[in-house]
Amino acid sequence: MEKLLRKKKNTGASSELAKVIGLERIDKKWLDKHPKLKILGIAATGLDRVDLQECSKRGIKIISLRDYPVFLRTINATAEHTWGLILSLVRNIPWAYGHVLKGNWDRERWRGHDLQGKTILVVGVGRIGHKILAYARAFGMKVLHINTKDKKKLLTLLPNADIVTLHIHLENNENYFDKDCFKKMKQGSYFINTSRGGIIDEDALLLALQQKKIARAGLDVVRGEPDKINKKLLKQPNLIVTPHLGGATFEAMEKTRLFIEQKVNKELKKYGI
Questions:
Q1: What is the pTM of this model?
Q2: Which burial class, exposed, middle or buried, applies to 99 when counting CB atoms under 10 A from its CB (0-12, 13-18, 19+)?
Q3: 3-state DSSP helix/strand/coil percent for the chain, to nearest 5?
Q4: How far apart are CA 214 and CA 160, in angstroms?
Q5: At the N or C end, where does the chain have fewer CB atoms within 10 A?
């Protein structure tokens, strides 16, 4: 999603001053094509795709959803997608569907598990983590939660969790969930990440899947997406991956785009536009 903001009168005066984007990669090459850019609106929370140092050097103001936590609490898309992955894993939905497409109908083979009574560990209790805790309680689950600063406590909680789901920022959390974490996970548990791919040690995840330390994993984000994805990881039969769909609903994308456009247009007034 990239939208050029223009004046109501089509003079083109602001066409080089401001843009609103989604998950596009903003690097020096992209910025060179927009030499007059002064305001960059980002209808997303993650800034890992943006060369912030280069933007700062050029005096470009960044306006992102991360700056508006109250508004973000009205957006449910990523939390709902996370719950969809959880249900898909514990009820074998993608695998059962593939089985039926091949002309089979073996009900016993794809018997799943109830969520009621199971324990979920939510790592990162921001706006999405809070929603996941609410969903879990509605399903009758036992809930555990932790923020990222207490890694020692995380390692003590992991053996108790049937499901572990990550909801943390990438900044200062590169490879946060590492081999020690996967080793501590409960045998046969489930793992979900809808945050950013870089917070996981993917080699450790691959090993945990291959050794069936964890039963299955569901990812909406992977390291190097979309061009440099670990293809060996993608081939694991006990893994499902979606292409960064967390926030990609018609409702959420329209709402966030309009919100950021309003903020950018307000900022443009400082330039007499």
A1: 0.90
A2: middle
A3: 40, 15, 40
A4: 13
A5: N
The domain tally of the chain equals 2
In this structure, the answer to whether residues 120 and 236 fall within a common structural domain is yes
The tens digit of pLDDT for each residue in 16-35 reads: 789 998 888 899 999 999 99
Specify the CATH number for the domain of residue 262: 3.40.50.720
Residues 8 and 53 in one domain: yes
Same domain, 193 and 105: yes
Domain of residue 267: give its range: 2-69+250-271
pLDDT tens across 86-122, in order?
Answer: 999 999 999 999 999 999 999 999 999 999 999 999 9
Same domain flag for 89 and 202: yes
254 and 126 share one domain: no
Within 13 Å of residue 8, how many CA atoms lie on the same side as its CB?
Answer: 4
Catalytic positions, written as ranges: 196, 225, 244
Using CA atoms, how far apart are residues 181 and 4, in angstroms rounded to an integer? 44
Report helix, strand or coil for 236: coil
Q: Give residue-wise pLDDT tens across range 37-89.
A: 999 999 988 888 899 999 999 999 999 999 899 999 999 999 999 999 999 99
* Burial classification of residue 68, based on how many CB atoms lie within 10 Å of its CB (0-12 exposed, 13-18 middle, 19 or more buried): middle
Give the Å distances, CA to CA, from 222 to 75, 82, 173: 22, 15, 14
